[in-house]
Amino acid sequence: MKSRTRAVVVSTAFAVASLFAVAPASAESNGDQASRPAIFEGALYADGALYGTNLNGALPAPNARNRHSFDDLYVATNGVEGQRPVAEAAPGRGYNGGRWAVVEVTWSDPSAAVELTSKADVDMYIEAGLLSAVEAGTYFSCPLLPVK
Questions:
Q1: What pLDDT is stored for residue 39 in this prediction?
Q2: Looking at per-residue confidence, does 30 or 65 come out higher?
Q3: Long-range pairs for 10-17: beta carbons < 8 A, 24 or more residues apart
């Protein structure tokens, strides 16, 4: 990986990690899960419910054969202040265990933004032309945990 590309990936991983209020793992490995405490408070939304997280670290970019093994994690670039990331899937059927591809979503008119809490919300506003989405090129492991 080129130095500049690595810097962008690490920078985006740090930005995503800051949303979860946990220490980011090295982009070189999955790190030591035990060294980062799990967050059992609401850190992100999935299917309209809040979940906690345990950031394990950066992952290599998927290829055409394994992209389906990552779920999308929607991170708003503008809109409602305090908007938490929104996971495509929650633990259960269709959940890939916490392997995420970051997708940046942007409101065309930030003053019309509402809080997003599910993939259905994201899809509805994209279909209405009010929200656009672009894959950010950041991939990481971060299982979802029930809020305690």
A1: 81
A2: 65
A3: 10/58, 12/102, 12/136, 12/137, 12/138, 13/58, 13/138, 13/140, 16/73, 16/75, 16/85, 16/102, 16/138, 16/140, 17/55
Q: Does residue 48 have a pLDDT over 90?
A: yes
Query: What is the span of the domain harbouring residue 21?
Result: 3-146
Say if residues 55 and 18 touch (Cβ distance below 8 Å).
no
Residue with tokens 């389906």: 68
Q: CB–CB of 105/131 below 8 Å?
A: yes
Indicate the average pLDDT of the chain: 82
The pLDDT of 76-91, averaged and rounded, is: 96
Neighbours of 118 (CB within 10 A): 18
pLDDT of 26 above 80: no
**Residues written for the chain:** 148
Cβ-proximal residues to 91 (8 Å cutoff; 6+ apart), any chain: 51, 143, 144, 146
With CA atoms as reference, report the closest residue to 50 among 124, 118, 122, 142: 118
How many structural domains compose the chain? Answer: 1
